Amino acid sequence: MGSVDTLSLGLPAPPSEIIRARYQARLPSALDDLTGPAHGTVLLPLHVAWSGQTAFDLDQPKPCMHMYRIMLAEGQRDDVAAYLNRDLLIRQWPVLCKLISPTVRNVWESAFPELSPESSSVT
């Protein structure tokens, strides 16, 4: 039996599809749109870092990784573009992708093949 399109039946989309679509809507058009800082201290707005720490030293590996985890999980499209840095994201991705949800990882790797494990192992 084939799969049934729940929208054509007037049924709500499964929660996993809603979450996936939410993260897809936050993606930049291209990784080059990620023009955030690569060094120094960054202060995230409260609508992104609402549960605790808001200042992150990008020159320190752990705070930088923590900020990127928060931004990928909570940031909207404009936040992602303003606070994430393309080169820093690519450099951190081999570890970062293991610290974020599978949904977020899949959405980013599907949109940007240069982040997938296959392309990061070829340098």
Protein described:
The chain is mainly alpha-helical and 123 residues long. The protein has one domain (33-120). The chain is 46% helix and 5% strand. Helix 1 crosses helix 5 (102-111). It starts with 14 loop residues before the first helix and ends with a helix.
How is this fold's topology laid out?
Elements: H1 15-25, E1 41-43, E2 55-57, H2 61-74, H3 77-83, H4 86-96, H5 102-111, H6 117-120
Antiparallel strand pairs: 1-2
Average pLDDT reading: 88
Largest sheet: 2 strands, antiparallel
Count of the domains: 1
The strand line-up of the biggest sheet is 1-2
- The percent of residues in helical segments reads 40-55%
Multimeric state:
single chain
Number of helices: 6
C-alpha Rg, in Å?
A: 16 Å
Summarize the structure.
This protein is mostly helical and 123 residues long.
Could you name the key traits of this structure?
123 residues, mainly alpha, two-stranded antiparallel ribbon, 2 strands, 46% helix, globular
